[in-house]
Specification:
Helix 4 (105-119) runs parallel beside helix 5 (149-165) and helix 5 runs parallel beside helix 6 (182-201). 36% of the residues lie in helices and 14% in strands. It contains 6 helices and 6 strands. It has 211 residues and is α/β, with parallel strands linked by helices. It has one domain (2-206): Histone deacetylase domain (Arginase, Chain A), CATH 3.40.800. The chain has a 6-stranded parallel sheet with strand order 1-6-5-2-3-4, sandwiched between helices. Zinc ion is lined by residues 58-60, 133, 135, 175-176.
């Protein structure tokens, strides 16, 4: 529903989801079924879009999405994650960026920007599913990276800049977040929602300019 709404409204946010560890035949890592793949294939099946792009910034690799889509050239998977983190055995995304433990804001943002810049020459996307994830946060119990809240804000901005630059509607899902302080998780997710609103709706990025 979020992706379908995004096609009309430029952006839409699912305040849950991002269940990227689910495979086609089994659940994994808190993920029962793979909502990103189902959404992508649903808009294709309905003839609404042909080339969805999944930008997965949850700290854990989107291994379920990557494995389901490994031989599907019509949906592109991009994952930036902690290399030493779960899952132990990584699947193969179209682009994988595996970061070392304790990666900071500057290193993360440079890697993300470089990764995003490399997509366009390989894949002509017509919509984006952004698996946001609050778990690259320095206070996360399972994350192992060291991003601050302002670093995560800059991350969201890079992704939304990418979407706006190429006129791509964007559906956001929340994915993981395991900070000791629950309000930190809420802050990070809310920051993503607020930034999406500012980028797509307050700047009059209407659907008329979108593909
Ligand atoms: Zn995660």
């Amino acid at each position: 529903m979020a992706l379908q709404d995004a096609l009309d409204d430029a952006v839409a946010v699912n305040l849950a989801g991002g269940t990227h560890h689910a495979h086609s035949d089994r659940p994994q890592g808190f993920c029962l079924f793979n909502d990103s793949v189902i959404a992508a294939r649903t808009v294709q099946h309905r003839g609404l879009r042909n080339y969805p792009l999944i930008i997965d910034c949850d700290v854990h690799q989107g291994n379920g999405s990557a494995s389901i889509l490994q031989f599907d050239a019509t949906i592109f998977t991009f994952s930036i994650h902690g290399q030493s983190n779960f899952p132990l055995h990584k699947a193969v995304s179209d682009i994988d960026i595996g970061l070392p433990d304790n990666t900071s804001d500057g290193q993360y943002l440079a890697a993300l920007e470089e990764g995003l810049n490399s997509i366009k020459s390989r894949f002509d996307a017509d919509c984006v599913i952004y698996v946001a994830g609050a778990d690259p946060y320095e206070g996360d119990r399972l994350g192992k990276l060291a991003l601050t809240k302002s670093g995560l804000l800059a991350r969201d901005r890079l992704v939304f800049d990418f979407c706006r630059k190429y006129g791509l509607p964007c559906a956001v899902s929340m994915a993981g977040g395991y900070a000791n302080v629950v309000s930190d998780i809420v802050d990070i997710h809310f920051q993503t929602v607020k930034t999406a609103h500012e980028y797509f709706l307050l700047n009059n990025c209407s659907n008329t300019v979108l593909k």
